[in-house]
Write a structure and sequence with these properties.
Elements (H helix, E strand, L loop, with lengths): L7 H9 L6 E5 L6 H14 L7 E5 L10 H9 L8 E6 L7 H11 L2 E7 L7 H7 L3 E5 L5 H7 L3 E6 L5 E6 L5 E2 L1 H11 L5 H4 L3 H21 L13 H13 L7 H10 L13 H14 L3 E8 L4 E11 L2 H8 L6 H15 L3 E7 L2 E9 L2 E8 L5 H13 L5 E6 L7 E2 L2 E5 H6 L3
Helix pairs in contact: 1-2, 3-4, 7-13, 9-13, 10-12, 11-12
Length: 437
C-alpha cells in the first residue's frame, strides 16, 4: 500500500469507466495530482486482482523515455503486450513525443487495452488527436485540493459536536489530538493554496513560496513558451509580456475585464507597443497570450449571463486563477483582498461539484454565480461579511430582483447571522466548503 492521500472525486470517475473503450484523459495544471491519480488507479487495479504484467506505466518526463520517437513508443509497449489479456496502459504527459497521438491511437486499434493519459495543456485534446478519437475519450478535469481535501492532506480530522443551542458544528483535530480552529486552517488554505505537494513540505512560508515559484515557472516555460515552438501552436515568444499578462489577470480575478483593458494597461506601462496605427492592434497579441494561460489551466474564464434575457453575453467576462496560493505568490499576500479570494475559491468548488457557473446580470446588478447542473440551478453571492446594513443590502438586492423559484444563497465568513432573509439562505462559507456533495 502506498502513502498517497486518496482523491476520491477523481478516482471514482476513472473507476466508473474502467475497462471501457473511451480513453481516459486526466487534465489539469501542473502538480495538481494527475500522476498520483494514475498511481492510485494502478493501486486500485492491483487490489482488484489485475497482475503487474498487465499494467504498463510510462512517465515521459523521465529521461528513461525522453529520447523516444513515436515508433519507439509503439514498439516499447508492443513488446510488453500479453496475448489474450486486457492491458492497462498509463501514459503520463505523452505529448512530449512528436506524433504521440498516432501511437496511442494505434494501441486502441491494435490491442485489447484500457488507456489512461495525463496532460498539462488543453491542446492535448485539440487538433489531430481529437479527430483521431472523435468521441472515444472522456476528460477528467483535475484541480488542486479543495478545502476539505486540504484538511485531510494536512493531517487533520473533522469531528462533529453539539452546541449548547442544539446545533451541530465541526472541530478539527491534528494527529496528536490537538484541536485547531477550522477558520485558522482556512486562512492557511487561502494564503498558501491547495497544491498537494504542501503536504510534504509543510506550511512554512519560505518553503511554500519556493515550491509555488517552481510550479509557476514550469507552467510558463514548459507548458506555454516551449509548446509554442511546436508545429501548429500559437506563437508565444515574449516571456516578460507573458508574465505581465498573467499578473494582470491574477490582480483582477473576479473583476469584469476585456482584452482591451489588459492591452491599455500594459501599453500605459510601456510593456506593449500600441500597433493600432499599423492595423495590428495589441489586443490580438494579448488574446493569444491569455488563451495560452487558459490552455495551461492557470486561469479559467467565466462568461456573463443575462438572467432576464436568458442569453450569454460576449463582453466583460471574468477570470479566476486555479490556485489562490499561486496568486499570493505572484502578487504578494493581500489581507484586504479577501472578497475576491473567497469568490475564487467558491468558483472552483462549484466546478468540482459538477456545476457550470456563470456571472449573472440582472438589470444593472450582478450575481456572483449562476450555477447550473442538469436541471438544478442555484444563485450564489459571496461576501466576506454580512453584518453591516450596506453590505447586506448590496448582496441581497440582486437576488431579490430574480423572481424565479430556484435556490438563492449568500455565502459569507460571518457566523452569527440570520439563516434566511426574504427566502434567501445565508450560509457560512466554511459550512458550504465542508458539506458533503
Amino acid at each position: 500500500m502506498t502513502d498517497y492521500n486518496h482523491r476520491d472525486l477523481y478516482l471514482n470517475q476513472l473507476i466508473a469507466f474502467q475497462g471501457q473503450e473511451p480513453v481516459k484523459v486526466i487534465t489539469g495544471v501542473r502538480r495538481c495530482g494527475k500522476s498520483t491519480l494514475m498511481k492510485l488507479m494502478i493501486e486500485h487495479l492491483k487490489e482488484t486482482g489485475i497482475p503487474d504484467g498487465q499494467i504498463i506505466y510510462m512517465n515521459f518526463e523521465s529521461l528513461s523515455f525522453g529520447s523516444m520517437t513515436y515508433i519507439d513508443f509503439y514498439n516499447y509497449v508492443k513488446e510488453r503486450i500479453l496475448p489474450g489479456k486486457c492491458m492497462y496502459l498509463f501514459f503520463d504527459e505523452p505529448q512530449i513525443i512528436d506524433e504521440w497521438n498516432r501511437t496511442v491511437n494505434s494501441f486502441r486499434v491494435d490491442f485489447n487495452c484500457d488507456i489512461y493519459l495525463t496532460g498539462s495543456n488543453a491542446r492535448l485534446l485539440s487538433g489531430e488527436y481529437a479527430t483521431y478519437l472523435s468521441g472515444r475519450y472522456i476528460e477528467i478535469r483535475m484541480l488542486p485540493l479543495s478545502f476539505k481535501e486540504f484538511i485531510d492532506f494536512q493531517g487533520y480530522t473533522l469531528q462533529d459536536y453539539k452546541t449548547p443551542m442544539g446545533g451541530l458544528k465541526k472541530r478539527a483535530y491534528s494527529k496528536n489530538g490537538e484541536m485547531t480552529e477550522i477558520r485558522d486552517i482556512f486562512e492557511a488554505y487561502v494564503r498558501y493554496g491547495g497544491f498537494p505537494v504542501l503536504k510534504d513540505i509543510g506550511l512554512e512560508q519560505d518553503k511554500v513560496l519556493t515550491v509555488l515559484d517552481g510550479i509557476y515557472r514550469t507552467v510558463l516555460t514548459r507548458d506555454i513558451l516551449e509548446r509554442s515552438r511546436l508545429k501548429d501552436e500559437p506563437q508565444v515568444t515574449d516571456p516578460v509580456l507573458l508574465e505581465k499578462v498573467s499578473q494582470f489577470l491574477a490582480d483582477n480575478i473576479g473583476s469584469s475585464i476585456s482584452l482591451n483593458n489588459i492591452s491599455n494597461s500594459l501599453v500605459s506601462q510601456n510593456m506593449l507597443i500600441d500597433r493600432k496605427r499599423q492595423g495590428k492592434p495589441a489586443v490580438r497579441t494579448i488574446a493569444n497570450y491569455a488563451d495560452s494561460l487558459e490552455k495551461a489551466y492557470l486561469f479559467y474564464p467565466i462568461k456573463r449571463f443575462d438572467i432576464k434575457g436568458k442569453e450569454f453575453l460576449q463582453t466583460l467576462g471574468k477570470y479566476y486563477i486555479v490556485d489562490t496560493g499561486l496568486r499570493n505568490y505572484m502578487l504578494g499576500y493581500r489581507g484586504m483582498d479577501t472578497g475576491h479570494q473567497l469568490e475564487n475559491i467558491v468558483y472552483f468548488e462549484l466546478l468540482r461539484r459538477g456545476f457550470d457557473p456563470a456571472v449573472g446580470k440582472v438589470g444593472n446588478k450582478e450575481i456572483d454565480f449562476v450555477a447550473v447542473k442538469n436541471e438544478q440551478k442555484v444563485y450564489y453571492q459571496v461576501t466576506e461579511e454580512m453584518l453591516s446594513e450596506d453590505t447586506r443590502n448590496r448582496e441581497l438586492e440582486p437576488l431579490r430582483i430574480v423572481r424565479d423559484s430556484y435556490e438563492k444563497v449568500v455565502l459569507t465568513l460571518d457566523t452569527n447571522i440570520r439563516q434566511t432573509e426574504d427566502g434567501i439562505r445565508i450560509v457560512s462559507i466554511l459550512d458550504f466548503l465542508l458539506a458533503s456533495t
